[in-house]
């Protein structure tokens, strides 16, 4: 059911409950089911933030259903370089998002359902939520072998992970969200979640890799819609409310005031990359130059996504010392980002002697450095 | 009392956060935060150990992942203190007290224990502030603070216009008392709230309430002087702009631009401008656009401009040269690597099309497409961005007619193209016709380029574009 236009004047999600709709009893119950009409990962994460910050969850719990177009979502305290193949993401135009909850890295596409259970802080209970999901799955397909582990994963056939969990707790409210693999692209999933970056040392939360399987592979008659419906059915039964899903447009500033700012913040470089805990890189560039291979040791410290310290162990006089120090000085303090580094290093080349040999060495070194990012 | 506090407590920030003795706009942030305090019998400066409270689910230990405050910062109740993680759950720990952080008991990545002290907070005394009922309001979010600040979860009714007004003035609707129907917040409520916040230099009053300042005379409409008027004119309260300056280091694209332009300063520029009649070219492009589209390439005017420039450079190679550091030698570059200034989301970037002298117009168009899509995705490589010998900047796509472009070292010339305008012009028969006119502004390095050379090059380039068929004669 779609939001009536008149509701657009009524602000705050609570109004949806208070206004009775034709042919539908107003819910007195303590829960609400909403679904996002958007497939944009940033918009959907912003809705989670909005509900967490603005809704009074004491009296009323919320179940939020959402799906995203291809995106990799890392946990609050994770390191994207450690978790995924950023080069591949950029090439394939797959978005990278950092959520506010903890936990590990997941790949989302339209074949994956996301469920967020919003409760008051006191009623935070992940196991209950996951048991609800399992109950729903079993009600839909009794022969499915699905169960919840003590790590809050849902396993299929005791072996394959079909759902991962993460949570965010605030002062008065909390949410627990989980994924559910219906029909996601496993090939893309495994290739993007493999990091090619070597020599990274970090205290960021590491992900625990797992074998995954789609529910669709187990039973081709299953669709995302059926699974969503089954879960909602179980939820409304348990919360004794009507089976009704309210659609939410995450771009609607009238309904969710301040949502667009939240969406924008989630997309900023400072949030996605800048929130990476401090890490260091210690690696060796193998540069093929004029028939021989140069081993160049590189050591960098990256804090808030910016290069704090940079050491490149070049053979003596391979680059003029003045130029080398300009390079290091330029890199220090700048983002650990290929785009920005490219802009900086190519600019430096403009103001140094126009020597083809020098240019080719410079380009070789810089390209190798940029590969690290 | 305020003065007494200055002498007895060493931290000035302590004072600002306590009273609305604001001396600058940045303190407005603090003036919202300290409202009403819990009544408790504490004397000034008591250190309280704020213990890590129960996380739930039987968890006893967590890892500290991020501190939002540091020692010496003042905090209000409900401000975020830190972020801890436990088994896939990220928890925002908020302060229970108002006061100053005196000690952090853990560093990042340490394990913290539930029930053990997390931070030491020096509590504010409640002396000098009326002890109100035990209600504490949540502080408003300022745009650059973490959005982990908790907001009291009550919904506020307000029209979009009112909400916008609130947001523009950095006001939390939950803090405003609504006087409309159903406690709806009206515009007047926002203005009343604002008036209360604009405490200028005020003496501390025994009550916590802040007296609104008198509006300045220039903001009050002049009409009240007219005593003959019977109808009272509503005096609008001044809207206070609570924005503040933001200083940040110059990095990334801006830093690159600083370096380039600083180097460009050393080059003595001279300018030369002209007007080009593109009527025939516009028609030609219209005919060729679909042909290019069939081949999967979007054809703009730039490929023509670029190719014409290359043909011109064949006749005037000094414009495709480079002067060395000491101005001792001029290097005539064999390749025409023509740069195209591009405006990306992050700033100015100038990739170049390599070896235009051996490319067809279609080749150039195809390469431009590739560079443009890489540019907007932020994926241009170093080879795309280096080796340029001559640059064109099509500022006309955004607007403008004449410009004064800056030469990008180590090049010696650059052209800025204005927008194409439809203007009346006279043809050979003296008749007025509709002409497609574009202006070009050249800049060149006057150390090795003279005006005459630039003018002749420009005329040649112009003639190729005004009569595209003539390009055919000289195409290589």
Automatic annotation (TrEMBL), chain A:
Q: Which domain of life is it from?
A: Eukaryota
Q: Which UniProt keywords apply?
A: Acyltransferase, Mitochondrion, Transferase, Transit peptide
Recorded hits in Pfam families, A to Z, give: LplA-B_cat
Reactions catalysed according to its record: N(6)-[(R)-lipoyl]-L-lysyl-[glycine-cleavage complex H protein] + L-lysyl-[lipoyl-carrier protein] = L-lysyl-[glycine-cleavage complex H protein] + N(6)-[(R)-lipoyl]-L-lysyl-[lipoyl-carrier protein]; (R)-lipoyl-5'-AMP + L-lysyl-[lipoyl-carrier protein] = N(6)-[(R)-lipoyl]-L-lysyl-[lipoyl-carrier protein] + AMP + 2 H(+)
According to its record, what are the GO cellular component terms? Answer: mitochondrion
Q: Which InterPro entries match?
A: aa-tRNA-synth_II/BPL/LPL, BPL_LPL_catalytic, LipoylTrfase_LipoateP_Ligase
User: Per the UniProt entry, what are the Gene Ontology biological process annotations, in alphabetical order?
Assistant: protein lipoylation
Location(s) in or outside the cell = Mitochondrion
Q: In which pathway does it act?
A: Protein modification; protein lipoylation via exogenous pathway; protein N(6)-(lipoyl)lysine from lipoate: step 2/2
Instruction: Please verify whether the record's keywords include Transit peptide.
Output: yes
Q: Where is the BPL/LPL catalytic domain?
A: 57-243
Its Gene Ontology molecular function terms? lipoyltransferase activity
Q: Name the EC number(s).
A: 2.3.1.200
**Coiled coil regions in record:** none
The entry assigns this protein to a family as follows: Belongs to the LplA family.
Quote the function comment for this protein: Lipoyl amidotransferase that catalyzes the transfer of lipoyl moieties from lipoyl-protein H of the glycine cleavage system (lipoyl-GCSH) to E2 subunits of the pyruvate dehydrogenase complex (PDCE2). Unable to catalyze the transfer of octanoyl from octanoyl-GCSH to PDCE2. In vitro, it is also able to catalyze the transfer of the lipoyl group from lipoyl-AMP to the specific lysine residue of lipoyl domains of lipoate-dependent enzymes but this reaction may not be physiologically relevant.
Q: What is this protein called?
A: Lipoyl amidotransferase LIPT1, mitochondrial
According to its UniProt entry, this protein's organism is: Campylorhamphus procurvoides
What gene codes for this chain?
A: Lipt1
Automatic annotation (TrEMBL), chain B:
Location of the protein in the cell: Mitochondrion matrix
Q: State where composition is biased (Basic and acidic residues).
A: 142-153
Q: Where is the Peripheral subunit-binding (PSBD) domain?
A: 157-194
Q: What is its EC number?
A: 2.3.1.-
InterPro entries, per database record = 2-oxoA_DH_lipoyl-BS, 2-oxoacid_DH_actylTfrase, 2-oxoacid_DH_E2_comp, Biotin_lipoyl, CAT-like_dom_sf, E3-bd_dom_sf, PSBD, Single_hybrid_motif
Q: Name one GO molecular function term.
A: lipoic acid binding
Its catalytic activity?
Answer: N(6)-[(R)-dihydrolipoyl]-L-lysyl-[protein] + 2-methylpropanoyl-CoA = N(6)-[(R)-S(8)-2-methylpropanoyldihydrolipoyl]-L-lysyl-[protein] + CoA
Q: Which cofactor does it need?
A: (R)-lipoate
Looking at the keywords, is Phosphoprotein present?
yes
Tell me the domain of life. Answer: Eukaryota
Q: Which UniProt keywords apply?
A: Acetylation, Acyltransferase, Lipoyl, Mitochondrion, Phosphoprotein, Transferase, Transit peptide
Disordered: annotated span:
130-153, 206-226
- Protein family according to the UniProt entry: Belongs to the 2-oxoacid dehydrogenase family.
Described by its record, this protein's role is as follows: The branched-chain alpha-keto dehydrogenase complex catalyzes the overall conversion of alpha-keto acids to acyl-CoA and CO(2). It contains multiple copies of three enzymatic components: branched-chain alpha-keto acid decarboxylase (E1), lipoamide acyltransferase (E2) and lipoamide dehydrogenase (E3). Within this complex, the catalytic function of this enzyme is to accept, and to transfer to coenzyme A, acyl groups that are generated by the branched-chain alpha-keto acid decarboxylase component.
Question: What's the protein here called?
Answer: Dihydrolipoamide acetyltransferase component of pyruvate dehydrogenase complex
**Species in which this protein is naturally found:** Campylorhamphus procurvoides
């Amino acid at each position: 059911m779609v939001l009536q236009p008149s509701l657009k004047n009524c602000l705050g999600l609570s109004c949806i409950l208070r206004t009775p709709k034709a042919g539908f009893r107003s819910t007195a119950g303590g829960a609400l089911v909403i679904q996002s009409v958007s497939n944009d990962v940033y918009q959907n994460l912003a809705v989670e933030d909005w509900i967490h910050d603005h809704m009074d969850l004491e009296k009323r719990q919320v179940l939020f259903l959402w799906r995203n177009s291809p995106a990799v979502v890392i946990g609050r305290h994770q390191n994207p370089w450690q978790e995924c193949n950023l080069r591949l993401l950029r090439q394939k135009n797959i978005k990278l998002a950092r959520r506010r909850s903890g936990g590990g890295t997941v790949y989302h596409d339209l074949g994956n359902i996301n469920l967020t259970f919003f409760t008051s802080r006191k009623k935070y209970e992940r196991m209950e939520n996951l048991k609800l999901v399992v109950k729903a799955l079993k009600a839909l397909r009794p022969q499915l072998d699905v169960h919840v582990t003590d790590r809050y994963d849902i396993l299929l056939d005791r072996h394959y992970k079909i759902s991962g969990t993460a949570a965010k707790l605030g002062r008065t409210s909390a949410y627990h969200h989980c994924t559910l693999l219906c029909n996601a692209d496993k090939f893309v999933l495994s290739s993007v979640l493999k990091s090619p970056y070597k020599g990274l040392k970090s205290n960021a939360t590491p992900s625990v890799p797992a074998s995954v399987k789609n529910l669709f592979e187990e039973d081709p008659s299953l669709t995302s819609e059926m699974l969503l419906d089954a879960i909602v059915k179980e939820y409304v039964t348990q919360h004794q409310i009507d089976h009704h899903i309210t659609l939410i447009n995450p771009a609607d500033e009238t309904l969710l005031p301040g949502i667009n700012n939240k969406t924008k913040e989630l997309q900023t470089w400072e949030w996605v990359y800048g929130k990476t805990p401090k890490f260091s890189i210690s690696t060796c560039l193998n540069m093929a130059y004029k028939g021989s291979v140069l081993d160049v040791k590189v050591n960098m410290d990256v804090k808030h996504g910016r290069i704090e310290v940079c050491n490149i162990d070049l053979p003596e006089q391979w680059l003029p010392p003045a130029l080398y120090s300009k390079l290091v000085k330029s890199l220090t303090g700048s983002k650990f980002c290929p785009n920005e580094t490219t802009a900086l290093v190519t600019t430096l080349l403009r103001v140094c002697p126009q020597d083809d040999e020098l240019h080719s060495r410079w380009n070789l070194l810089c390209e190798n450095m940029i590969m690290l990012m | 009392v305020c003065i007494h506090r200055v002498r007895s407590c060493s931290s000035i920030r302590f004072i600002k956060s306590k009273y609305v003795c604001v001396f600058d706009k940045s303190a407005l942030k603090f003036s919202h935060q300290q409202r009403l305090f819990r009544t408790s019998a504490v004397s000034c400066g008591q250190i309280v150990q704020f213990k890590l409270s129960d996380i739930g689910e039987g968890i006893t230990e967590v890892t500290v992942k991020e501190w939002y405050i540091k020692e010496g910062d003042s905090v209000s109740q409900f401000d975020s203190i830190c972020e801890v993680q436990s088994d896939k759950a990220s928890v925002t720990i908020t302060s229970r007290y108002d006061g100053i952080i005196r000690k952090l008991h853990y560093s990042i990545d340490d394990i913290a224990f539930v029930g053990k002290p997390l931070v030491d907070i020096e509590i504010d005394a409640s002396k000098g502030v009326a002890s109100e009922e035990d209600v504490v309001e949540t502080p408003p979010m300022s745009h650059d603070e973490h959005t982990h600040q908790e907001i009291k979860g009550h919904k506020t009714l307000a029209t979009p216009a009112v909400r916008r007004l609130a947001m523009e003035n950095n006001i939390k609707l939950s803090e405003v008392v609504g006087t409309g129907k159903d406690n709806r917040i009206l515009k007047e409520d926002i203005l009343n709230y604002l008036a209360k916040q604009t405490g200028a230099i005020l003496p501390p009053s025994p009550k916590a309430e802040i007296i609104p300042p008198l509006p300045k005379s220039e903001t009050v409409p002049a009409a009240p002087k007219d005593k003959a008027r019977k109808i009272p004119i509503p005096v609008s309260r001044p809207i206070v702009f609570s924005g503040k300056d933001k200083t940040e280091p110059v990095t990334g694209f801006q830093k690159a631009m600083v370096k380039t332009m600083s180097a460009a300063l050393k080059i003595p520029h001279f300018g030369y401008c002209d007007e080009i009649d593109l009527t025939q070219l516009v028609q030609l492009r219209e005919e060729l656009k679909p042909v290019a589209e069939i081949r999967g390439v979007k054809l703009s005017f730039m490929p023509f401009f670029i190719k014409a420039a290359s043909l011109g450079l064949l006749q005037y190679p000094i414009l495709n040269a480079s002067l060395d550091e000491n101005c001792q030698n001029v290097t005539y570059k064999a390749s025409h690597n023509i740069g195209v200034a591009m405006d990306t989301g992050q700033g100015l970037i100038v990739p170049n099309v390599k070896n235009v002298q051996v490319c067809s117009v279609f080749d150039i168009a195809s390469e431009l497409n590739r560079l443009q899509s890489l540019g907007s995705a932020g994926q241009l490589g170093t080879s795309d961005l280096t080796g340029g010998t001559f640059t064109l900047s099509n500022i006309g796509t955004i607007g403008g007619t004449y410009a004064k472009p800056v030469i990008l070292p180590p090049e010696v010339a650059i052209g800025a193209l204005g927008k194409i305008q439809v203007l009346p012009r006279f043809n050979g028969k003296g008749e007025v016709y509709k002409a497609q006119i574009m202006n070009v502004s050249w800049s060149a390095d006057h150390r090795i380029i003279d005006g005459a050379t630039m003018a002749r090059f420009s005329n040649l380039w112009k003639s190729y574009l005004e009569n595209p068929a003539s390009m055919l004669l000289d195409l290589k």
